[in-house]
User: Fold this.
Amino acid sequence: MLLFSRIRSFALTDQKGRRAKLKDLAVGQLDCDYPQVTHLLFRHRRDHLECLPWRAVESIDLPTRQIKVKDIEASEVVPLEWRKKRVILGDIQDALILDLEHNRAARANDILLKEEDGKLLLSKVDTGLNAILRRISIGLYNRISDSTLHDWKQIEFLQGNPQAVKSGPSYQRQITQLPAGEISSLSSQLPYLHAAELLMLLPDPIAINTLEAMTKRRQLQVFEELDEERALCLLKIMAPDVAADLLGRVQTETMLRYLKLLPKVQSDRIVELLQYPEDTVGGIMTNDIVIAPMKLTVAEAREKLRERLKEPDFVYLIFVVENTKTKKQRGVIPLRDLITCDDEKTLEEIMDTRVPVLDAIKPADSAAHQVIESQLAALPVVAPGGKLLGAVTVDAAVLQVAPQSWGSQAPRIFS
Amino acid sequence: MSQEITQQDAKDLEGGEQLALPTRPRDLRSNLRVTIRGRSVRLRGIRRIPPGILGWLLVLGPGLIATSAGNDAGGIATYSSAGAKYGYDLIWVMVLITVSLAVVQEMCARLGAATGRGLLDLIRERFGVGWALFAVVVILVANGGVTISEFVGIGAAMELIGISKNIAIPLTAIFLWYLVVYGSYPNVEKIFLAMTIVFFAYPIAAFMGHPNWRDVAHGAFIPKLSWDSDYIFIVVGLMGTTITPYMQLFQQSSLVEKGVARRHYGPERVDAYFGSIFSNLMSIFMIIATAATLYVIRPRDIETAADAARALEPVVGSAASTLFGIGLLGASLLAGAVLPLATSFAICEAFGLPKGVSLDFRRARVFFGLFTALIVVGAAVALIPNIPLIQLLLWVQVLNGALLPIILIFILLLVNDRLIVGDLKNTRFYNVLGWGTFALITTAVVIMLGGQLLEHFGIHLFGG
Assistant:
């Protein structure tokens, strides 16, 4: 094993006896278990940083602290664009990293490299105090503790720049295999720019769940750092109540721009929710619910709802209305009943009509208690004329009455 | 709007159905009327800082606490000494330092908002482990010194109330340690903060002492320079206690903790500015009150906490000692708990070590070790018999003043790095003020240290 902090102080020498001071090492792609060192970066005669490919290395002489290469003069000046596409080990050293094995953010106090078939591979990261002592003791202290060494396979390196995901080098992306709650918990240990970069790495559905699991403050910080294209993409498939909550906190100009860019259906849903103050029933309800007219038979409803049931977050209750024109609330049917009931029966016959309804402008707290006490997955929210506006789910109700500190950790069952 | 299952209803939606909103009770006020896709709607669910004075008041917090924390045991000793010995002559330093403090605190707040990271964390990543270690040592020495001064303050306050410091200091050290590690510190913090309300008596005392306001104004705006070693010592002490390194750490970390993002940073400036002005106004009132009660009788050195408490006599009469003791105790307890905690946290952050009171000792040995060591050393030094109390407090502030330029360089380099702060980079105006502050403090420190060094070689640079 070679320590990067040691190698960095080595000299480059060539067959003609020329010497240069090694500055750094570059790796190409991070999307593999152990990325390979591709270039040596150094300064020789020119003002600019120069590089030589790793294949130019003939041997590494540890006692004399030298890396022997064929010809130092064969180097090239490192262009800025070249650097953007690669990761420099000097950037990883001292940076924040995600230790996925222990689910924590740590600092790369040193990097360990291993030689394999003539290649130099990025193998481990040392996050312990020993690494710091080694570095500041100028070779007097050499202890390496296995307990603070972490396999690179389990490390996600973030640069603290959300835009780097699009334009920069590749990522390990092991993080995408974790559940959204764990990713969110990990991201809470990171500065917000790192958290935004992390979100940019995730596929849309995981990104949305991760964002939802964050505290509202962190949600806003992270969301505002996403580029417009990605933010819009997430808003399109996000539950309208979550999207409304988020857009209600961003700057007015940003909110209006997104509302104009979003598909009309989603934009209208969000606008409707934004019309209610956050401490009212309307402020905690969702309007992404499944509605069916009461005259439909169970078979017709099943057929018509098949596609619809794939979309919304909340599918556990079917809200039965008089007809789709007036949308007057009449009752609810649990999804289980819809699946198990006889095909010929109408929804009117099987629906539960004794469900209490909520007023959209009443205080959210008392409504939340009402939802929890009802033992139902959700209660419908109606306008004074009886028109169905949406529903308050038990998840939203629990979040409303739970202590604020509990917020993002609250289990979400129905949404 | 719920999504319907029939085509007809889908058409309705596409046509932009006017959303029905139930009649609202009058107490729900409208928030923002906007036009979206040609339709005018009133949005009440948006959450943002309201415009006007209310909006400014809502952002007050970290800056006010960070700068007010400067008015602790060391601060009170330094301001009281300045007033008792030099009357109103040193108020100009406070006026000048108010601008500097505001600029430095604002830069730290900006660093916090732009990066979401603490000061030592940024130093580590930008300058590497060597410089980070150097900064850590500086912070450790500066904050360690202030922690000692807090325990000295606790001892002095207890003695004013009539409890021996030999009993009070060890018990308080154990109490603070237990409170932070196992207790509910945030709740007790409010009690400590409430105890410091006593110091609001200083502005009243300043007015009731009937100072000559013309002299006060003269002292505030016409700098009086004196080539006197004690004078320069107090000037550096004033700078050190007013712009203390832990204030910068605290300001930046608080902004990070508050979750302020760079796009919402604008209003937060007010907090940094207001906190600096408010806290220094209180400090100036301390100088005026002490000058109006002690200096006018006879210019003198403040020797004990009881001397400093006499400045409150015009307001509270014979209760001055007790009330001063309560205030001093609150301020010292507050800083005595926060300072070791914040220092340990920042150092572990810089080295990427496990940190936080929620962890156990095994997982965060360095964090808890540092925290415990700071409290133990602070309490032990404060227990040394016959320690020259006020002189020790003054020396700690001078030490802070001497170390401040080092931290200022880091702050100025970081806040000028576009790769780190992006568009929130310092403007030229801020750089002039920032580097001006650095030059001012460095000059004062160099003159003081140079003078004292030359004294050892028999060369007398200063009079007095």
